[in-house]
Amino acid sequence: MTTAGTLHMICGKIAAGKSTLPATLAKLSNTIVLSEDVWLSGLYRDEMKTVADYMRCSAKLRAVIGPHIAQLLRTGLSVVLDFPANTLLTRAWMREIIQHAGADHQLHYLDVPDEVCRARLRARNASGTHEFAATDAEFDLITSYFVVPTEAEGFNVIVHKPG
Question: Domains in the chain, start-ordered, CATH in brackets?
Fold first, then answer.
């Protein structure tokens, strides 16, 4: 009998380090990374012009990839889900994956102040190295939906603060 893998989820505002932490977690044995930005960019780049477009495309991707992630976990692989676990709705979707797979989990919460995220975002945008660039107005809009994970949600939360 194979023991299910661990689902690693990442929670943090834009430019908090949600794409950096998965690279570290990927070094764990039998672990793969699935990145929402990579999938969305490859599948829907031309369709995503607004936050509403992102929400629509992300929902389509989650509907297809969720069962696949559960299957990977059931085979014993651990998955770093580089999708933002930033809202109650998104975390509920992730909870369903955990339950369907019978997997362990860790919710990594990147507790980074807004001013640090903004500075990182501006540097990232200037470098052109990220699949998507966000303006300050988009940062504000998307951050308005952000919900800090609570104990009541029942996740194993690991808090990461900037060095």
Answer: 6-160 (3.40.50.300)
Count the residues in the chain.
Answer: 163
State the pTM of this model. Answer: 0.87
Joined together, the tokens standing for residue 57 give: 């495309």
Phi and psi angles of residue 10, each rounded to the nearest 5 degrees, phi first:
-120, 125
> How does pLDDT run across 68-125, given as a tens digit for each residue?
999 999 999 999 999 999 999 999 999 999 999 999 999 999 999 999 999 988 998 8
SS3 annotation, the chain: CCCCCEEEEEECCCCCCCCCHHHHHCCCCCEEEEEHHHHHHHHHHHHCCCHHHHHHHHHHHHHHHHHHHHHHHHCCCEEEEEEECCCHHHHHHHHHHHHHHCCEEEEEEECCCHHHHHHHHHHHHHHCCCCCCCCHHHHHHHHCCCCCCCHHHCCCEEEECCC
Separation between Cα atoms, residue 85 and residue 12, nearest integer Å: 7
